[in-house]
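Predict structure. Chain length: 409.
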Amino acid sequence: MNFSWKRNLIVLWLGVFFCSTAYTISIPFLPIFLHTSMGINENLEIWAGISFGITFLASALISPYWGSLADKYGRKPMLIRSGYSLAILYFLTYFITDPYVFIVLRIFQGLLAGFVPASIALVGTNTPEKDVGYALGVMATAGATGNIIGPLVGGVVSHLWGNREAFLFSGCVVLVAALIATFFVKETKLNKSGVRSRVSEDLRAAWANRPLMALLGVSMMVTCSVMLLEPLLTVYVLQLGVSEHEASLSAGIIFASVGIATVIASPRWGRLGSNIGFTKILFIGLIGGAVGNLLQYFFTNLYGFGILRFVYGLFFAAVYPSINAMIVKVTEPEFRGRAFSLNQSSNQLATMLGPVIGGVMGGLIPIRVVFILNGLALLVTALVIYYKKPGRKSSPSQQPAADAQVLAK
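Prediction complete.
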């Protein structure tokens, strides 16, 4: 290689960190912004839910298209396109006073997103094979760190300057990510001579690659598992006896503990996966996540619950790097941009559906029972991984019959 993959990894880590931070800055005050700045007084919960979910839906629908362009023209152009587009949209939000226009901007944020999957695809394609697992483990910490820092920064900025000004701050942060991608990211392994495929062809090719489809299903399942608890943890913290005044802070710390555990453990899981295989690491991570969820049923003390969530995070940190590394293993380099974009679609759909399902379940059954169901679902997923082992390489251009033969081995 005529460039340092480690330098590329550091640069992309910073880009994903800034992009993730920018997105999560607005999360703490989104309902308040709709109420105070947009004049929403009725059905505020519905407006907040739509504003939150519509971005993920739009991103899920458009991701395969951006993946197709990435494989044809390069992942770096997708980083630049996404970074500058999002920066402009955040800046425009500062001037918006109509809630319907705000929803439109949120839709465009989803349609023009794609910085993170393009970064992962670039790392997966431009890193030596023996170091891919470690590199993807490191990349997993970028989003986790941004998700921890973002809400904290958003809370401070909105408190000191205002909610609108926080969107300006988000625009500046994501602009830094775009500038990093423009001037410092290098991409070498790219074949521009091929003809860009249609999304319908990509979907058929992905469907023919059964190991890839299995991994996309696992990715959607585990993301739904995480997001299922999004609307329930604060309520559960209240049920543990915490006062309303301290509930938000306590729930925020518990959420952050999982992210901190991810930052600590993901690179180590990635390096271990390179040595013993990512199927085993994914299985361990899913079992750890399942046991962690099941044990949460029995912990009714806030401190014990918080410690358990941290330990759960140490194991669950193995999941996403393993899935990403296995996607690299089961796809050809020229298809990886599309593969990671399809994975992004799966994650975004799960991110949208998870809180809705969790909210409905929390209204019908005790939250402690939701932990049990969540743990059982992860346990079933782990058993499927153990018996199916969807980590064998299969070109997306192969016929379905060929893929069936691979899985039958």
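Summary: The CA atoms of residues 19 and 174 lie 5 Å apart.
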